[in-house]
Design goal:
Layout: E1 10-13, H1 24-33, E2 38-41, H2 48-65, E3 69-72, H3 75-81, E4 85-88, H4 95-102, E5 107-112, H5 115-123, E6 128-132, H6 148-157, E7 162-165, E8 183-186, H7 188-191, H8 196-211
Parallel strand pairs: 1-2, 1-8, 2-3, 3-4, 4-5, 5-6, 6-7, 7-8
């Protein structure tokens, strides 16, 4: 499965901080059934075997909706789960090395903050770019904020899809209109909400307004 830019519209990144007695599987299924178009499983403090076990459960759910499903940062887990691909940060493996390992059929996303890094990632075989943080975010405290102009410059510089990430929610998402992005990636704007279904539906409509 490779991607088209339409699948980047509303990109959900998981976080188990807000389960409140629910399961991640239930939360993911609700989000997917209400409009999420791309899914990343993000786990920072988890053993390999547990990561793979969880990944396989989430992949089964994603497969039902034909939504692309990638693993954050860990190529070995992505391979073990047979995920659709992987998302890598600037401090992780470069795109060209990841492409060598995963082959041509898997999706590779790369986090970038500059036009220079964006061009390197595209040349290395990245399928899409995550650019951020576009707003301040509590989920990644070391992420530097990216200006609207830099976001726009990155979108203009590459031909692959670009997704904005970082602190995006229903209250600020429309500020990204006109940047040229193909979608937004969110964490708390979906998974921290009491009504995930309605939050997702609202975000889908807002994303369409931003992208069009």
């Amino acid at each position: 499965m490779k991607i088209d830019k339409n699948s980047m519209l509303l990109y959900a990144v998981t976080d188990r901080s807000w389960l409140n007695g629910d399961t991640l599987e239930n939360q993911v299924e609700t989000a997917l059934n209400n409009g999420v178009t791309f899914l990343q499983l993000r786990e920072k403090n988890i053993e390999f075997d547990e990561f793979v076990k969880l990944g396989k459960k989430i992949k089964t759910i994603a497969d039902k909706t034909n939504v692309p499903f990638v693993i954050n940062d860990n190529i070995d887990v992505a391979i073990a789960v047979d995920a659709n691909g992987v998302h890598l940060g600037q401090d992780d493996m470069p795109a060209d090395k990841a492409r060598e390992i995963l082959g041509d059929d898997k999706i590779i996303g790369i986090s970038v903050q500059t036009v220079h890094d964006a061009l390197i990632a595209e040349k290395g075989g990245a399928d899409y770019l995550g650019v951020g943080a576009v707003f301040s975010t509590s989920t990644k405290l070391d992420a530097a904020d990216i200006s609207f102009e830099t976001l726009k410059e990155i979108c203009n510089a590459v031909s692959i899809p670009v997704v904005a990430i970082g602190g995006i929610n229903a209250n600020n998402i429309l500020k990204l209109k006109g940047s040229g992005i193909d979608g937004v990636a969110v964490v708390s704007a979906i998974f921290a909400q009491k009504d995930i279904a309605n939050a997702t539906k609202q975000l889908v409509n807002l994303c369409k307004e931003v992208v069009n």
